[in-house]
Each structure stands twice: as C-alpha cells, then as structure tokens.
Design a protein that fits this description.
The complex is a heterodimer. By secondary structure, chain A is α+β, with helices and mostly antiparallel strands. In chain A, 22% of the residues lie in helices and 38% in strands. By secondary structure, chain B is an alpha+beta fold. Chain B has one domain. Strand 6 of chain A pairs parallel with strand 9 of chain B.
C-alpha cells in the first residue's frame, strides 16, 4: 500500500513537471533578435516564474479582450500595442484584471502568478519592475507566436 | 489541544483567510478624474519606507529613495508617477496607480489606465524631499 502510494506521488510529480514547465527558445538566446518597438507603440512582456506551485493552472491571457498568449510557468511572450490605456485579464475560477497605461516606446512587464482561490487556484496579474523582470527573463522560455524577430523581418 | 492540532488549525485559518481575502476583496472604489498637465513638472523623493493599508485589505509599500515625477494635478492634489519603479493598487482587480499628494500627504491614487481617482482614507503623511 505504501509503495503504491509512493509510486502515485512520484507519477504525479513527474506529470506536474512535464506539464508544468514552458518549453521554447530561452529569452537569452533570442534577445538580440527581438525587433525594436514601432514609434507609435509600446511593448508589454507577460511572464511567469518557473515554479511547480499551481503549475497545472495555465489560463489564456487577454489584452483588451483579445487572447495574446497563455500563462505558463517558466514562460514569457511579448505584445506590441498602441500607446494608450489597456486591460490585461486572465480567467480561472474568477476573472482577474490589470489596468495600465502604455506610452509610445515604453516597455511594461506584467507578471502572472498563482494565488489561492476558494475552490481552486487562480492566476493573478501585476506590474513588475523592469529591474526584476530583466533579471528573470533570461531563464524563461518564449511561449508566444513565432516571433517576428530582427532576422526574420529582413 | 495537541500542538500539532493547534498548528493545523492555525494553518487552516491562514489558508481560509488568504483565500477569502483574494476571492472576496472589494473592488477598488474610484471616480472619473481628469488630469491637468503639470506646467512645471518636478521630481520628488520619498525619504522613508511607507506602508500603505489600502481600503481593500491589501497593502503596498513605498520604498525609501524612490523617485517620482509630477505628471499633473487633480483637484485633490499633485499626481506623481514612479521614475524607477512600478506601482499598483489592488482590490478584486489590480490597477496601475500614481500617487496623489496634497502638500506632503498621500491622499489617494490616480489610475492612469482608467482616468479615475481612488481616495486613500485616512491620508498618510509622507517624508518627501525635492530633487
């Protein structure tokens, strides 16, 4: 009985690890090819730390009601948007939103992270400082759409 | 009660409290606001750590040494955005927020992504320095 339980726990842990971590090109390997921001736009980086806590919760992230990616542990992606006001949102057992303003040429960093919920975990969004985001990004994997990098744009 | 049982009960209470806080936190109360651009923007520095207890039950901390730039005025006070950091307030939802300061008192927050104002009651005395 005890051995069976241990196997189940191990299997659950392996499953969690396999399903929990984002895979893709690391930021540090693609940073030099990320295109510059257009003059009338700003850029929003969405990222999530690599952690097994709440790893199974991977909701879509919307920006102004348009799905732009998913909240995946260890993953990041970026979206260029017109300068102005924006609302980012995720829906799990409840909807959590973050409103912010974006200036032309500005880059903002939005961290998604798991939190307690009443019936299930949830993902919350908040602004992160450029300093902390830039320290974390290099180890994260790109989970966005195939990037229009400087190299592919040529 | 056994010590282990006491710990379990405490943990359960903490877990329920955390869940309740995040699930049932009230909305940030705000009203429409029109920011008037600052004629001569100035920078200020917050000289001491300040903890802000938000009406929603969440708290925020202003770090000592943080620099803020005046972006304009509301009837309630001058509006400052962080120069080297980010700031948001949180209730049921999260909102980027700029400080609204009347003299040396933090009286509320301007939500730039929504053009709204949220009052902080009671206001908090800040230790400010001009740059």
């Amino acid at each position: 009985m005890k051995r069976t339980l241990l196997k189940l726990v191990a299997a659950a842990a392996v499953t969690a690890v396999l399903s929990g971590c984002a895979t893709g090109v690391k930021y540090q390997d693609m940073a030099s090819t990320i295109p510059a921001i257009q003059a009338d736009q700003g850029r929003v980086y969405f990222f999530r730390s690599s952690s097994m806590v709440g790893a199974a919760i991977q909701p879509e992230i919307r920006l102004d009601d348009k799905v732009v990616g998913k909240s995946e542990p260890g993953g990041f992606f970026f979206v260029d948007a017109a300068a102005g006001n924006h609302v980012a949102a995720v829906s799990t057992e409840t909807e959590k939103t973050l409103s912010f303003t974006l200036a032309a040429g500005e880059t903002k960093y939005v961290r998604s992270s798991p939190s307690f919920g009443v019936l299930a975990g949830r993902i919350v969004l908040d602004l992160e400082t450029p300093e902390k985001a830039k320290a974390e990004l290099p180890s994260l994997a790109y989970t966005g759409a195939p990037a229009k990098t400087q190299a592919s744009a040529k | 009660m056994q010590p282990a049982g006491h710990i379990r009960r405490t943990l359960a209470v903490l877990a329920v409290s955390a869940a309740t806080l995040s699930a049932c936190a009230p909305m940030v109360v705000s009203t429409p606001a029109t920011l008037t651009a600052a004629a001569a923007p100035r920078d200020i520095e917050i000289r001491g750590h300040t903890t802000i207890a938000l009406p929603t039950g969440y708290s925020r901390r202003l770090e000592a040494g943080g620099r803020w730039r005046e972006m304009g005025r509301l009837p309630e006070g001058a509006v400052f955005r962080p120069l080297d950091s980010v700031f948001s307030i949180e209730g049921r939802q999260a909102h980027e927020a700029w400080l609204v300061i009347d003299g040396t008192r933090l009286v509320g927050f301007y939500l730039p992504g929504e053009h709204r104002y949220s009052t902080l009651d009671p206001a908090i005395q800040l230790n400010l320095g001009g740059l």
